[in-house]
Structures are given as C-alpha cells and as structure tokens.
Amino acid sequence: MEFLFYGLLGLIIGSFLNVLILRHGVRALGGRSACMSCGREIAWFDLIPVWSWIALRGRCRHCHTRISLQYPLVEGATALLFVAIGVSPIALSLKMLALPVAALFVAIAVYDLYYTIIPDAWAYTCAVLSLAAMVVALQGSGDPYTFAVAFFAGPLAASPLAALWLVSGGRWMGLGDAKLALSIGWLLGPFSGVGAVFFAFILGAVVSVPLLALSSPSCRRVISGFTRTLTLASLRSVFGQPPSTFAHQKTMPKLVFGFTMQSEVPFGPFLIASCFFLWILQLYGIPIPLVTFL
Hints:
Elements: H1 2-23, H2 51-55, H3 70-86, H4 92-115, H5 120-138, H6 144-168, H7 175-188, H8 190-211, H9 217-224, H10 232-239, H11 244-247, H12 268-283, H13 289-293
Helix pairs in contact: 1-3, 1-4, 3-4, 4-5, 4-12, 5-6, 5-7, 6-7, 6-8, 7-8, 7-12, 8-12
C-alpha cells in the first residue's frame, strides 16, 4: 500500500514540477495549463500524469504538435524517487524532509539542463531542508563532535566547486553548483558528500564525450523530437506577452542540443544523479565501497 501511496504522490508532484520548471521566471504558477504551440487550454483528462501523454501519443489533442518527453519523464522519475524514499527504513519525520528535497532536485536538474542556471531560491530551500534533515537524523545523539562533523559536511562538499568558481571567475563552474553541493553534503555526510561531488565529475566526463557527436545534423534532428516546439508567437498566445518580452531573456529553452568543445554543459544534473545514487544506497544500508574503504 505504501508503494501505491508514494507512487501516486510522486506522479502528482512530478506534474506540478513540470509547471514549476516551465513557468519559473516567466509567469505565475496559477492559471490553467495551455498548449505551447496553439495556446488552447488543456482539459483535465489530458493532464493525468504519464497516462495522458501516452494516450495522446505525445501530441497535442488540438494542433497535434509534439509534446516533449520531459513531461512523462519528470513525472515518472519523481514517482520512482518518492517510492524509493517512502518505503525506505527511515523515520517518517525524515521522509517528510527528504521527499521535498528529492522533488526540488528533480526540478533543478531539468531546469539546469535547459538553461544552465540553478535558481537561488530552489538551491537555498534544498539547503535548509537538508540541514533540517541532518539535525533530525542526529537528534538525541548527544555527541557535539558528531554534530560538528555533520554540519561541516555541507561546506566541505561545496568547497571544491566554490574554489573552481573563484579561480576561474565563473568560467569553469557556476556558483549555483556549489550552493547545490551544500545540500548534498548535509544529506550524505562528509565522506559520501565529497564522494558524490567527485563521482559527478566522472559522470560528466563519461556523458560529455559522447555528446560531442550530437553536433552532427542527423543527431540534432533526432534530438529535436524530444524538445518542446516553441515560437515567440506561441509564447505570446500562451502567456499574453509580446515577443520582445522573451527575446532578450534566458527563459527561452534550448530547443535543440548541439555540443562542441566550447559548449556550456550544466553540471547540476550530474551532481544530482550522483547524489541520488549514493543517497538511495545509504537509505537502504547498502555499503558504499569508497566510504567503507575510508
């Protein structure tokens, strides 16, 4: 029964995350959802997480414009994470803090992938919730040394990224990644927190090298099917704003991903993927080889 509860909750929250990602910095969260191509309002039965996308075969009911895979992927991923956290053998008080952190991590990963920026409000909220989870987890331990080590795990995990940002003047690394690493350190502890940061660099290298091939025209045509089809005219019809409002902003998504050696690759998704991997292992008491060795 827990599987069903947390799975459904994750699907609902995942649907909200899609709205949060798309509307952040563009319009208020309130109001009906509409097709980003034709501007028609979407009926409630076309907003059922995952199922509606499958039933519509990934296209708008009215204009038949392709709907991004982002929607079912975010909803499905959030549901899986909620189930993994919800049925784990940790206290309910920790779950109530861990679930919103996981949801925000998903939103940050997708938003950073689109715009190569991590909203401060989201990063700071994650940090506060992660710090609170650390305090709850250590409640009753009565050991000041243990608490001090756990507290400095956040700054310790963030320090390598902050140093890269400082030395490069922001060219190699964004400060938002360091802010995100604070949450990772407080969630995972000192060894796993630092390990997650370095594992993220390995993930980044493994993924980024094949991405260089995506600059070819054939690959770009394939990838375009997975991204939203937006025009300035459709933005005006959906948001009620003139095209010039969006022409100079970073709120326009990158519709087609093409990578070269000079491309700016977001690091946040790698940090979050690394954190999720080690976090789930910790929640279920599965030994982490690096931490066990240390």
